[in-house]
Amino acid sequence: MLSSPLMLQMPSSMTDDQFFEFCQLNRDLRIEKNRFGDISIMSPAGSETGNREGRIIQQLMNWTDEDGTGIAFSSSTGFTLSTGAKRSPDAAWVKLERWNQLTPTQQEKFAPICPDFVIELRSASDNLQPLKDKMQEYIQEPGIQLGLLIDRKNRRVYIYRPGQVEECLENPDTVSCDPILPRFVLNMSKIW
Predict the structure, then answer these.
(1) What does the pLDDT look like over 175-187, one tens digit per residue?
(2) Are the CB atoms for 88 and 32 separated by under 8 Å?
(3) Type and span of the H or E element at 62
């Protein structure tokens, strides 16, 4: 398992379709591209992190089914940000009204939209600062309303909102996502 992402510099001539095909040919890897065109390749999550990530997406999917105003996505979903970066948050949610403005072709590939809500989960091998940098990238995007960075190692949750200073919760039992996701409360007992 890689302790940090392998960074590749690619020719700028790689089109979005070629990058999508590259990712499809390497489905076992977690691949992202930053705004400069550099590609990061991360090993799949370890079993423990994968289980915790599953618990997060389970809670988000259950809430999404009950709420009905948006759709949720797992970590295998890529989004194209306004900077051209291609990112795959560990969990994400997009309001239906924004999602439905995309064409079926845009929805099929790495949708050109930043989710309204993203979660990143720090695995044991992740360095914290690159994840914080990624959250700062998300929070500057049009459409984003809320982001959570869950640091299991230190039992902290960093909360990101547009135009606000990062907030840090120490060992919370729950994290409320109101008012962006009304009545969605992330139960941390299954995630720690």
Answers:
(1) 999 999 999 999 9
(2) yes
(3) helix 47-67
